[in-house]
């Protein structure tokens, strides 16, 4: 009888422990989903008494709060009267790359959602979790790629040379122009294109895309179709009512290169770009990469008051870019291709969209891959505390990658980060260095040290031989 009672007691204890464990697990799981977001750039401390400032968190950083303390500090005023100063401190955890860290912050700088934490103009962005599929007949690969222009593809034997170079140097992907920097289409497309443009497809450089794709696939090369989105000279000439102009006088707006930009609010251009993407998917490309997915540089947004963006739907720039990518993803899903977007390298280090419409989390939540252009030559003097970022490829790419990963930590199911890196020498940069194999290795190492193992090399001339 005593044995039976003891056995029953033991079973009760075991089951109580199981239920208790489940309860703790459930609470922890619920707590892990109960995020808060930082509303300002704030200092973080090692303890509740703020003895040591251990860094800062930027606006929008996702955190978990799991303790609150009221700290009372006594002092005396000028008359010798004792006064008390109360400060509420919150103990938080946050992710720094792949590590969960603990810190203390002052109360009053947290919001329950990312939309409430960021600037007013970004509050309509959609940060909900989006499904990122893997297609059975189009498996994902860890891309180590080269940019290959349509002219390199069309040049006799040049494609073969690049394939041999790829095989010898662990390169498995080519990014090929399908809609180029001026809006030109690079291989013959169906009549479906004609309703959007009369001249973009008149003289494609690549006369037949089918043998090109076959050759790439026969050699194990993953094919990415580069589509320039909103910098489109050909479309602009045919659709002058769609371009960005000055409100006063109606003159076309151009950047320093003299090229006219079409407004990213133009939904007809959205359809056109996606139609081109469908042609690329049907031709056998594995992935669609949207480049120039932005508004033109406008002096940090200072020109916005004088420019006519033809914003009929009263959307912010960031909303337009996100909705464009969302539309493209939905339209292209039946074709079982992956979607990627190229963005400025510094977007990951900025708490806004740099007045370009590229808000990190809004882009990353929509696409399968996000490709920040981390060319060290494109970072200004003093960025990341570096006098000449171009002369510090490891440090520049490391810090940019770290910031990008931490922005991905703010959302559920973000895009895979696959940076563009520099395979050219930026002679125009004061204090620049010559780029070669060592500089490529430093950039790749910077990413790998943070767990990022995909990248694409950019050389406008496609002369990569000297970089390996």
From TrEMBL:
InterPro entries (UniProt xref): DUF4015, GH
Pfam family, one: DUF4015
UniProt feature coiled coil, ranges: none
Superkingdom, natural source: Bacteria
Ranges for domain DUF4015: 145-464
Protein's UniProt name: DUF4015 domain-containing protein
Organism per entry: Fusobacterium simiae
């Amino acid at each position: 009888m005593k044995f039976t009672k003891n056995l029953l007691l033991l079973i009760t204890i075991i089951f109580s422990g199981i239920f208790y464990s489940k309860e703790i697990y459930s609470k922890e799981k619920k707590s892990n989903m109960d995020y808060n977001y930082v509303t300002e750039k704030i200092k973080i401390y090692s303890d509740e008494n703020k003895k040591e400032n251990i860094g800062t968190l930027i606006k929008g950083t996702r955190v978990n709060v799991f303790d609150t303390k009221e700290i009372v500090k006594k002092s005396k005023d000028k008359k010798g009267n004792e006064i008390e100063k109360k400060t509420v401190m919150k103990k938080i955890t946050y992710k720094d790359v792949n590590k969960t860290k603990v810190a203390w912050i002052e109360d009053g700088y947290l919001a329950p959602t990312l939309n409430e934490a960021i600037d007013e103009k970004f509050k309509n962005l959609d940060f909900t979790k989006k499904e990122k599929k893997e297609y059975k007949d189009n498996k994902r690969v860890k891309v180590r790629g080269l940019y290959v222009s349509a002219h390199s593809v069309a040049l006799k034997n040049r494609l073969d040379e690049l394939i041999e170079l790829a095989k010898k140097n662990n390169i498995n992907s080519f990014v090929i122009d399908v809609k180029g920097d001026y809006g030109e289409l690079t291989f013959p497309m169906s009549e479906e294109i004609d309703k959007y443009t009369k001249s973009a497809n008149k003289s494609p450089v690549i006369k037949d895309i089918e043998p090109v794709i076959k050759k790439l696939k026969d050699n194990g090369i993953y094919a990415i179709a580069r589509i320039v989105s909103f910098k489109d000279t050909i479309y602009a000439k045919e659709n002058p009512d769609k371009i960005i102009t000055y409100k006063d006088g109606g003159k076309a707006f151009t950047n320093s290169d003299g090229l006219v930009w079409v407004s990213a609010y133009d939904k007809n251009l959205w359809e056109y770009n996606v139609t081109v993407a469908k042609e690329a998917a049907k031709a056998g490309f594995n992935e669609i990469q949207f480049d120039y997915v932005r508004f033109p540089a406008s002096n940090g947004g200072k020109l916005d008051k004088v420019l006519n963006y033809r914003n009929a739907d009263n959307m912010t720039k960031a909303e337009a870019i996100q909705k464009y990518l969302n539309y493209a993803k939905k339209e292209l899903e039946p074709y079982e291709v992956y979607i990627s977007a190229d963005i400025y390298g510094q977007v990951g280090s900025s708490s806004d969209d740099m007045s370009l419409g590229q808000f990190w989390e809004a882009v990353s939540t929509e696409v399968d891959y996000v490709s920040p252009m981390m060319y060290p030559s494109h970072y200004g003097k003093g960025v990341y505390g570096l006098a000449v970022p171009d002369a510090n490829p490891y440090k520049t790419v490391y810090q940019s990658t770290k910031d990008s990963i931490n922005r991905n930590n703010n959302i559920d199911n973000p895009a895979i980060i696959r940076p563009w890196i520099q395979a050219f020498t930026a002679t125009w940069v004061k204090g620049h260095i010559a780029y070669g194999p060592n500089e490529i290795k430093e950039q790749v190492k910077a990413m790998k040290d943070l767990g990022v193992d995909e990248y694409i090399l950019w050389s406008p001339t496609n002369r990569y031989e000297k970089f390996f």
